[in-house]
Write a structure and sequence with these properties.
CBS-domain; 2 domains; binds adenosine-5'-triphosphate; binds magnesium ion
Amino acid sequence: MSKPKHKIVIDGVSKVFGPDPQSVMPLVRDGVSKQEMLEKHGHVVGIRDVSLDIPAAGTFVVMGLSGSGKSTLIRHLNRLIDPTAGRILVDGQDILTYNDQQLREFRRSKISMVFQRFALLPHKTVLDNVIYGLVIGGMDAAKAREHGMQQIELVGLSGFENQYPRQLSGGMQQRVGLARALATDAEILLMDEAFSALDPLIRNDMQGQLKELQARLHKTIVFITHDLDEALRLGDNIAILKDGELRQVGTGSEILLKPADDYVSRFVRDVNRARVVTIGSLARKAASLPASDATEARCRELLDKTGAVVLTADGKARAVLDSRDASAASIRKALKAAARGAALPELDAAATIEECFATLAASGGPVITVSANRRSMGLVERGDVFAAMTV
Ligand SMILES: Nc1ncnc2c1ncn2[C@@H]1O[C@H](COP(=O)(O)OP(=O)(O)OP(=O)(O)O)[C@@H](O)[C@H]1O
Ligand SMILES: [Mg+2]
């Protein structure tokens, strides 16, 4: 079987609470408002027709205000609740068709959850909390302890394994919760407002720690928050819910630069864009061409196709060509520069505008952006950077 493209697919999922959810689904589908559904029809719309593709090995944030349906959505993913309509696929499998045994196995090995209020067992030590699920699942006690100690080290709690939860600060308790979720080696971590109960400094620490862990572990994390800064800091992708409906999904840069509607616009209005928007998101695509293979004809062909060309030597950018100035003289000049010239400054496409200020300020013309694997290059103009900061 070929590997599905997305780790989790949420396909047209609605969840209605009330005495007879199915009976009101036609109204929900017709778009009757959440308020009217409650006042006239006695049902609460938890989420309405939400579809999301969640890629593997990334942090996917679901954001929205209180009551927008975040918890309802995430609880579907480990089937704490089942949808009124729609499908949920994990690794291409429809989890709604699972029987009890398949569901137990799925929850034991594939998916685990970190709760807002830590949900630790007060009479058990840190280590016993961390390995509780493993022991219940039948793992040999010595093996479970060894594995548990590794998770405790991973979250920076070595030395505290024999303490009890009440002896720990909130941040430390939440790290126990995280270690417990990691202990099952689940590929998917669900985190529902996992940091919201922590005070700001500790919360900030935990966000940093989660980012570091994720850079090493490459889990599929679904992270719920009502905090925009947290969403922008953690999310490779962000989905915004309002009244149970999906308003927008995209990278932080996409959401800031192209808010889908007024609601999202108002939501993101006060964000410092320089700190969030990546330089790569502002670049236009450029083809790269080793100077040793470059002829005038080849340059022109690529310019027609892509609009911009970066000439490279020894893998480094040496000269830039732009279709807006594609005269024979300009091309010859660029070819000469590429053969002899010094390397041009390059920006990491994933860097924020703020991180690029110095390079942008020092450069006269467009600056080259390069993706992490160096497979794609782009050109960014200073004017576009200013424009992005003032939208
Ligand atoms: N078990 C339930 N029975 C009835 N209504 C429910 C139930 N669970 C959730 N709801 C309703 O569904 C809607 C979405 O609730 P949900 O808990 O998903 O919101 P949330 O975005 O997680 O909010 P918060 O930020 O406050 O946690 C709300 O209107 C809520 O009242
Ligand atoms: Mg919630």
